TrEMBL record:
PROSITE patterns for this protein: ADH_SHORT
Species: Lophiostoma macrostomum CBS 122681
PANTHER family (alphabetical): DEHYDROGENASES, SHORT CHAIN (PTHR24321), SHORT-CHAIN DEHYDROGENASE_REDUCTASE FAMILY, PUTATIVE (AFU_ORTHOLOGUE AFUA_5G14340)-RELATED (PTHR24321:SF12)
Annotated keywords: NADP, Oxidoreductase
Cleaved signal peptide residues: none
InterPro entries hit by this protein: NAD(P)-bd_dom_sf (IPR036291), Sc_DH/Rdtase_CS (IPR020904), SDR_fam (IPR002347)
Family membership: Belongs to the short-chain dehydrogenases/reductases (SDR) family.
GO molecular function: oxidoreductase activity
Protein name: NAD(P)-binding protein
Superkingdom assignment: Eukaryota
Length: 296
């Protein structure tokens, strides 16, 4: 049995060609969505991932669609959302996982602003593009409702216990942004990345407040060190981080798996999180409890 919550509808995931985004998209398929859009700047890899998801999708009518998107380009994002709505009718779940890592390790006084702008254009502005365009599409969708099943053991229609589970709205959709432990903390020589991920947390709170009355929930998942190809490239450059992870991560001294992060994303999209918006859900193994990140 899957450890993921049961879901339905259509999911749109950026950064779905690899890493956290790919695992999130796979988990939507495994969790029961009838359609998943694999969006990424690397269209070939997104296409391969979409094809792979067909083999374990839970819905017999499941359909996967690969789309090339450059999240730094507003028109590219608009085209992605338009295609999703045209092909599937609406967007139920939107996950913004496209992003880049801290590609340099220089102190603030030595900042390369070409690199700085590239990181913010992708991680911050790209996320803002996706939130805004998806939210606009969701505004045109009717809200969904959900009637919880009767509690086990209460089969008498006259039982007052049944009245404690009234129908509730699920809203027009859920938007989940992928932040980072550096959405709330920082480490030396990470000006651009810290600024971008702090910004993603701010975007989440602002959008959640703007659209709560519209029935659009917006939340952010903030992973710590996660076993992704992007982070593996960082480890290749800084091998001392392997031992630093073992020393500094309270939970088992290890990286998170992408599946552990995806499970948090799917919960925020599920019925169980119907009253959660504007939240920052850390998936960091406890790193944020006592110090700022993994120190080499």
């Amino acid at each position: 049995m899957s450890d993921l919550p049961a879901l339905s509808g259509v999911a749109l995931v950026t950064g779905a060609a690899s890493g956290i985004g790919k695992e999130v998209a796979f988990s939507f398929a495994e969790g029961g969505c009838r359609g998943v859009v694999f969006a990424d700047i690397n269209h070939d890899a997104a296409t391969a991932a979409a094809k792979e998801s067909q083999s374990f999708a839970a819905d017999a009518a499941y359909r996967a669609l690969a789309v090339r998107v450059d999240v730094t380009d507003l028109q590219s994002v608009q085209d992605m959302v338009d295609l999703t709505v045209r092909e599937f009718g609406r967007v139920y779940h939107s996950v913004n996982a496209a992003g880049i890592a801290n590609l340099t390790a220089t102190p603030t006084a030595s900042t390369d602003f070409t690199h700085f702008n590239h990181v913010l254009d992708t991680n911050l502005k790209g996320t803002a593009h996706c939130i805004a365009i998806v939210a606009k599409a969701m505004l045109s969708q009717p809200p969904l409702t959900y009637t919880p099943p009767h509690r086990r053991g209460h089969t008498d229609p006259s039982s007052t216990a049944l009245n404690t589970l009234p129908p509730r709205t699920l809203g027009r959709g859920a938007i989940i942004n992928i932040g980072s432990i550096y959405s709330t903390l920082t480490r030396p020589s990470s000006l651009a990345y810290t600024a971008s991920k702090h910004g993603v947390l701010g975007l989440t709170k602002a959008a959640a407040l703007d659209h709560a009355r519209d029935g659009i929930r917006v939340n952010v998942v903030c992973p710590g060190v996660t076993d992704t190809p992007m982070f593996r490239s960082v480890l290749d450059r800084y091998p001392a981080m392997q031992s630093a992870i073992a020393r500094n991560v309270p939970w088992e001294g290890r990286m998170a798996s992408t599946r552990e992060v995806a499970a948090a994303v799917l919960w925020l999209c599920s019925r169980g999180a119907s009253y959660v918006t504007g939240a920052c859900l850390g998936v960091d193994g406890g790193v944020g409890l006592s110090h700022g990140g993994v120190k080499i």
